[in-house]
Amino acid sequence: MRALNVVGIFTEAGENRYAHNDTSIKLTNKQFRTLVTGLSNNFSRYMPQLPSYLSSLSFTNPSDSQNTLFNYATNNSGTFFDWLQSNPSELAPFTAAMTASSAMNRNNVIATVSSLFTPSTTADVLLVDIGSGRGLILDEVRTQRPDLTGLMVAQDLPHEIAGRQPNPGAIEAMAYDFFTPQPVKGAHTYYLRHVLHEWPDAACKAILRNTVEAMTKGYSRLVVVDAVLPNTGVGLFAALLDINMIALGGIERTERHWRELLESVGMKVVVVKTVVGGRDGLIEAVVAE
User: Fold this and answer.
1) What's the alpha-carbon Rg for the chain, to the nearest Å?
2) C-alpha span between 286 and 269 (Å, rounded)
């Protein structure tokens, strides 16, 4: 208890007496514990190798999705996500953590997606959620916004799509690897939430190019929901998450970094919101003229 008090979990109320505080109360939330357990299970084991890994890169940001802290610490080839697919016992806590994260931010996420469309928005293909998990957010948006009549598509790897509960007619669920050409052409909105921060710039450019090639200039847009860091004065949570992303080769980006990344693949940034709920920001981009 003394150690927990020192690091901010529980508050010392007297000799051998301790009381709950905001942090300890948060840890009573099952979803939050699932998230913490999943992140710890997947990332903390690699952190003892972080100093030597960064030294091997001359203390530059990771640039190769197959030369990450995960690769360095485990001697595995391929990406962390490739490895997860072949290790079900490791995949289960990671999937649970991502599901818990979505559930904790569910209302914010639904509100953010819904706010992208006015009642008058019409499209044959309204929204493509790339890396959507099992499409639960789109299910909710479809339920709450019956005025939005265009097709909504949830895309993710086969194991995620296979775990989706049947919900006929709500949305289309599609197995898709975002490192391959985007099969849905000319949608109104392509949406990426908490995807790009898991990858280095080179991999992000490949994902984005596949999206850009499917977009219709002057009509389609890309919406990215992820952290948008300030150039200085980054908060503790964002700074620590940035370190966690090193395990994957990913990075949390500033507005300047986001603009440079998107412009490098032929896009023009038209909207940046630094906060849209929780830790997230929002970037909207279109194909440049």
Assistant:
1) 20
2) 7
Name residue 283's beta-bridge partners: 224, 272
pLDDT in tens, 237-271: 889 889 999 999 999 999 999 999 999 999 999 99
CA distance 53 to 62: 10
CB-CB contact of 207 with 195 (8 Å): yes
pLDDT in tens, 153-186: 999 999 889 888 877 677 999 999 999 999 999 9
Q: How distant, in Å, are the alpha carbons of 17, 22, 85, 197 from that of 14?
A: 5, 18, 49, 43
Specify the long-range contacts of residues 146-154, CB closer than 8 Å, at least 24 apart. 147/119, 148/117, 148/121, 149/122, 150/121, 150/122, 150/123, 150/124, 150/125, 150/126, 150/188, 151/124, 151/125, 151/126, 152/126, 152/127, 152/128, 153/125, 153/127, 153/128, 153/129, 153/184, 153/187, 154/129
HSE, CB side, 13 Å, CA atoms: give it for residue 39.
18
**So which residues are the catalytic ones?**
197
